[in-house]
Each structure stands twice: as C-alpha cells, then as structure tokens.
UniProtKB/TrEMBL annotation:
Record-linked Gene3D superfamilies: Diaminopimelate Epimerase, Chain A, domain 1
Top class in the EC scheme: isomerase
One function term, GO molecular function aspect: diaminopimelate epimerase activity
Known EC number: 5.1.1.7
Protein name (database record): Diaminopimelate epimerase
Quaternary structure (record): Homodimer.
Residues at the site labelled Could be important to modulate the pK values of the two catalytic cysteine residues: H164, E213
Reaction(s) the record says it catalyses: (2S,6S)-2,6-diaminopimelate = meso-2,6-diaminopimelate
Record organism: Parablautia muri
Annotated positions binding substrate: N11, N64, G74, N75, N162, N195, E213, R214, G223, T224
Gene symbol of the encoding locus: dapF
Location in or out of the cell: Cytoplasm
Transmembrane segments: none
Biological processes annotated in GO: lysine biosynthetic process via diaminopimelate
Length: 278
C-alpha cells in the first residue's frame, strides 16, 4: 500500500489514495491501528483515506489511531487539500471536500507550485447539547461545572462536526493530560466520548491550548479543537472574533464570522515523506 505521511502543526496522519488502494471497510480499523503504531508501523495520529466523491471534489475518510472513525478533522482536511493539488489530482485552488456527509470549502495557497497553507470554511459551530452530544439540563453547555477526578472544571461544549469540551485554566503547560484526558474523554456526560481542549487565554487575540483527542490521546494540534476553542472564547467574552490559537506544534488562525455564523481556519499543511508498506 502506497502512503504519504503529512502533518498540520504536528498533528500527523498517514494519507492513502482510496481510489487506488482498495481496502474492505471492515478491515480498515485494524489496518489503521497497525499503520498508526509508532513502534511497529509507520507512525501517526491516525489514517486518512482520500476518496472520489459525487457530491464534492473529494471525500475524506478519517480514522483515529485507535481505529475509530471521526466525523471531521481540521488539520487533516488542510493536508487533503495539499495532497490533491501537489499530486495533480486537481489544478483548482478552490475545492470542496466532504466528510461524513458534510462538505467543507478550501482555499489552497500555492508557493512555488506546491501548497504551503490552506484556509478552510469549517461551517457553523453546533451548540445544541443534544447534537454535540453532551448530557445537560439546558439547551447549551457554556461555562458549566463538570467534576473530574474530584476536581470541578468549567466547561463549554461545541461540535465542529465532532464533539469538543473546552476547559479554561490559568496554566496548561504542567497539566497531567495522560491522567485527566481519558477521564474527560470517557466521562458519562459524553455518549460518543469527547475531544477536550485545555486553554489559557493570553490576551484578547491569543490563546494557548493543549488537547486530548478522542481515539488518539494528546496530540500536538487539533484543527477542529482550535475552532471550538475560538467559539468558546467568544461565547465566554474572553477574546475577539479573530484568534491565534497557539498549540504545541504551531499556530492556527481562527475567525468566527458572527454575521454569517461561519468559522474560518487558516494554517500550514506539510508533506513529511512517502512510502510503501506491505
Ligand atoms: N486532529 C483532528 C481531529 C481528529 C478527530 C478527533 N480525534 C475525533 O475523534 O473527533 C483535527 O485537527 O481536527
């Protein structure tokens, strides 16, 4: 199987051309776990298949490291844009990519003939608790208490197609994510598990974030997570509509256009290496 290893802000996935590499759907979770393994496989936060589509220019089929399917991937979709342009599968710089039935629109920025960065219209954030899903008394979860490991945190929940719980804190660099991350991910309030972002607001235009991803663990960046964080910051009155989200692996620029209710994410897409695995 031919593959390309790519990353967006250090959130690294293995990209496979699903049109050329035919794999039975039921075999994919096991193959994803094998390929993602950093000791016995290629190594990555998961695998993304790029498939032909009737409803959009391309389809993105995204799997986490544990073999679970995710509805959306922000860093992944930027790399899909780079993959299809750099490999000549399209010559357009405005393309559409569908994932789990939801289409996103990408603007690709070429530098010397190859894509260096991508802007994605990530659509509208979902705040309705039942659609995220998160178990709640009210319609939305904004700055609500949650108890984890005998500690009370304030959480705001947002779906960007996939579920996110955003926790604001005074400090995030020393957090024991390996311990508390899985407790949030598998908390009884999240029927589909959750991604969790731990955020320190630096000023009204900059925030620092670490993430524990559903199905993968701590990663260096999460694009949908950065979008959810910006929404949570604005809903809690903490930042302006344009926010630089500083992650362990780089910075993403996120803008929530409140008039149109659309989120725009801009960031890098990088190819690391290509190979073939048997
Ligand atoms: N890293 C991704 C999100 C990947 C999926 C996530 N772990 C989930 O299960 O929802 C991003 O950049 O958005």
């Amino acid at each position: 199987m031919k593959f390309t290893k790519m990353h967006g802000c250090g959130n690294d996935y293995i990209y496979v051309n699903g049109d050329k590499e035919k794999i039975l759907d039921e075999k994919k979770p096991e193959i994803v776990r094998r390929l993602s393994d950093r000791h016995f496989g290629i190594g990555g936060d998961g695998v993304i298949f790029i498939n032909p589509s009737r409803e959009a220019d391309f389809e993105m089929e995204m799997y986490n490291m544990d073999g679970s399917r995710a509805e959306m991937c922000g860093n992944g979709i930027r790399c899909v844009g780079k993959y299809v342009y750099d490999k000549g599968l399209t010559n357009k710089t405005e393309i559409s990519v569908v994932s789990c039935g939801k289409t996103k629109y990408l603007t690709l920025f070429p530098e010397n003939g190859l894509i260096g960065s991508v802007r994605v219209n990530m659509g509208s954030p979902i705040l309705k608790a039942s659609e995220i899903p998160v178990i709640a008394d009210g319609e939305e979860v904004i700055g609500e208490r949650i108890e984890v490991d005998e500690k009370i945190y304030q959480m705001t929940c947002v779906s960007m197609g996939n579920p996110h719980a955003v926790i604001f804190m005074d400090e995030v660099s020393q957090l024991p994510l390996e311990k508390i991350g899985p407790l949030f991910e598998n908390h009884v309030r999240f029927p589909n598990r959750t991604n969790t972002e731990f955020v320190k607001v630096l000023d009204r235009e900059n925030v620092q974030m670490r993430v524990w991803e559903r199905g993968t663990g701590e990663t260096l960046a999460c694009g949908t997570g950065a979008c959810a964080v910006s929404v949570a910051c604005i809903l809690n009155g903490l930042t302006k509509e344009q926010v630089a989200v500083k992650l362990l692996g780089g910075t993403l620029q996120i803008q929530w256009d409140r008039k149109e209710n659309l989120i725009y994410m801009t960031g890098p897409a990088v190819t690391v290496f290509e190979g073939e695995i048997f």
